[in-house]
Amino acid sequence: MSASVHAVVADLRDRIRQFDGRAQRDRAVLPFGVPEIDERLPGGGLALASLHEICGGGNDAVEASAAMLFAAGIAARTKGQVLWCLTRPDLFAPALAQAGLAPGRVLYVEAADEKSLLLCFEEGLRHGGLGAVVAEVARLSMTASRRLQLAAEAGGTLGLALRRFRHRKEADALAQPSAAVTRWRVSVRPSAPLPVPGVGRAQWLLELARCRAGEAADFDVEATDAEGRIAFSSRLADRSPAAGARRFGAAAG
Amino acid sequence: MLVGRDGARRILTAVSRPAEQAGLRVGMPLTKAHALLPGVLTMPADPAADAAALGRLALWALQHYAPIVAPDPPDGLVIDTTGADHLHGGEARMLTGLVNRLSASGIFARAAVADSWGAAHAAARFLADPVCVLPPGKAGEAVSPLPVAGLRIPPETVTGLHVLGFSTIGDVLAVPRAPLVLRFGPLLGRRLDQLQGRISEPVDPLRDPELVTVRKVFGEPIGAPETIARYTAGLVHDLCAALEKRGLGARRLDLLFHRVDNSLQAIRIGTARPARDERQLIRLLTDRIETIDPGFGIEIMDLTATLAEPLVLQQAASSLIEAEEADLAGLVDVIVNRIGAARLYRIAPVESDVPERSFRRIPPLSPETGTTWPSRWPRPARLLARPEPVEVMALLPDHPPASFTWRGVRRLVKRADGPERIFGEWWKRDAELAAVRDYFQVEDTEGERFWLFRSGNEEQAASGVGRWFLHGIFA
User: Fold this and answer.
1) Which InterPro entries does the record match to this protein (chain B) (predicted)?
2) Do A191 and B447 touch (CB under 8 A)?
3) Residue A82's pLDDT is what?
């Protein structure tokens, strides 16, 4: 595409966004700092005033531990306090600190049931003074996600719905509709062997299953570091460009 | 031992524990007590001072436990716990906490929760040891084996019932009502009905003149939630004006609704720090209007600042210096009033190498500790509540496992890191003197990572059982 066509498309997108009624400040984004991922997201990063959905893939669907660290890494890179809503208190706080989220920045809400969890989630999004709100939800209906998305827009807060399924059977949740702006699936992959005995940095397959005004894609990444940043996997960088393109094409189609 | 007067006789009105063991009883003449226990220490009873002390105790319970509290003379308090127990972690925990706090200040108390005042009164005196929670709808059965003295009836009636051969409440409930009422008057029948919850028994709530209260009386009863919300806003406005005059901010607000059928409904909200912000208070109160059942209508609304503290004004940081840190007190209040204070917390590090002891919960608005966990070793994202035993193939003495079986799934270990040896904390428990855990981080063929440990060093039996456990899941 030539530059002029790009400009026209960008202009049209801007106008559509204005019809949506979303104000200028809502377009602020949080880049991952990984060009390969950021260039696939509209605006060059995760939209701040909106809801994003993250779930674990494969065997990790029930524990969602990789997805949790991914969410923690995103929350760590926002400014201000983070509200973390959960129903099962099996989260180990030192791991959050190792993903860059210091203990002084996190407020935990331990809700008795899903209903009050969603209420607290929405309350946190509406408040507007938090950097991010993370909620470990099992079920997220279209209505609930729509409410949360509106609350995130109203409060200008980043909302991360971390899906924790009760059984492996439920885990095909990304097939259900949701109003979240982006939907991610994080699965673990075997890590690269080290020259010495030991365990290296964890490797994830990061699938962008849905992205409003963008295309689906998947990425091989290295797990969050101490500042909450993920890195593009060196293994994919070594691969030939054609192989990479095929992978993206398959995911989008 | 306290001595009071019953007409011309001097009788005992209260006896201490040791005196009771020596055979003294309440209601015994003083002369007899002296004969039984020569040289016993006696004090004149002072019913007025007792009543005043009970009033103070009721005020304390009002400020700490529930919006509707009344003294139940001569020796009790009645607390309407509806809508208040969840903020204290449930009925049983609330009662235990109450009894413990009272015993810490030297008051021996027993407490019970039941459907009706009458049932709770009887259960607290004859069933509680020191607390008892009667399941809803079962109050009648639970109190029937209790003595008739638990019925809140005059002592003459109790004696009369004993003379007729009634010893328990169940005996009285089993016989036709009419002859009893003919003999003992209408009070007995009313008490029995109140005990079973057949007729309502309004609690006249204690109100202290020192507390800031505003009241709205309606000519025509109201019932619609929108109307209640509108008048709530008006009351909050008046209350804030009254608080401002005294320089106070509210920590706890009670909104009482007097219904036309003479029963009470209440909303209680708390704030994390003294507040006089009308919008915030209205928000907190109207959030809970849905819990109110207006019945046939509400005729009086009372708003009281049950707990008020001096409000210290803070200067807001100018935007020239730094970006303003958002104030979370409002959000904290909204969430706490909805789901209870124990459910909103921060996690602070504790200096302990034992993973399950390395953190503690602290209140949401506590000052920043500025500490964090050491990051030398990776820690799992999920920590199991208790380590789960796994079947393991491993080389001894300190090789990581080659494979393990957890929850019925066998996993081959591809890569592993460890051991990280953690010693028991002998200063906490003697049994941990030699305890040892060797932690390994392992990755299976799928890339999933787990945190396993072997308890014991395989040399000394005291160091642990030598079995393998799975304690956490990495990403």
Assistant:
1) DNA/RNA_pol_sf, DNA_pol_Y-fam_little_finger, DUF6504, SulA_CellDiv_inhibitor, UmuC
2) yes
3) 93
What number is the ipTM of this complex?
A: 0.81
Q: A25-189+198-252 falls under which CATH superfamily?
A: P-loop containing nucleotide triphosphate hydrolases (3.40.50.300)
Q: Which residues of B are less than 8 Å from A130 in CB distance?
A: 326, 328, 331
> Cβ(A17)–Cβ(A50) under 8 Å?
no
For residue A252, name the pLDDT band (cuts at 50, 70, 90): very low
Q: What is the pLDDT of residues B87-131, one digit of tens each?
A: 677 788 888 888 888 888 888 888 888 888 888 888 888 887 778
Which of A95, A130, A199 shows the shortest C-beta gap to B379? A95
Chain-chain contact of A65 with B359 (C-beta, under 8 angstroms) = no
User: Does position B74 have pLDDT exceeding 50, yes or no?
Assistant: yes
Residues of A in contact with B447 (CB under 8 A): 188-191, 202-203
Q: How far is CA B296 from CA A67, B199, B222, B280, in A?
A: 52, 16, 8, 30
**pTM to 2 decimals?**
0.76
B330 interaction partners in chain A (CB closer than 8 Å): 127
Query: Which chain A residue has the Cα nearest residue B358?
Result: A94
Q: CB distance A120–B338 less than 8 Å?
A: yes
Considering the domain delimited by B2-45, tell me its CATH architecture: 3-Layer(aba) Sandwich (3.40)
Q: Which pLDDT score is estimated for B325?
A: 63
Higher pLDDT, B277 or A237: B277
| Tokens encoding B181 | 């009422």
Contact residues, chain B, for A95 at CB < 8 Å: 379-381, 474
Mutate to test the interface with A, among B280, B283, B322, B335 (most CBs of A within 10 A): B335
Per-domain residue ranges for chain B?
2-45, 62-196, 212-310, 382-473
Query: pLDDT, tens digit, for every residue of B310-334?
Result: 887 766 655 555 555 667 888 888 8
Homologous superfamily of B212-310: DNA polymerase, Y-family, little finger domain (3.30.1490.100)
List of chain B residues whose C-beta atoms are within 8 Å of the C-beta of residue A120:
335, 338-339
Q: Nearest C-alpha of chain B: how many angstroms from A117?
A: 9
Q: How far is A211 from chain B (nearest CA, A)?
A: 24
Query: What are the boundaries of each domain within chain A?
Result: 25-189+198-252
Q: Give the residues across from A51 on adjacent strands.
A: A159
Band (pLDDT 50/70/90 cuts) for residue A196 is confident
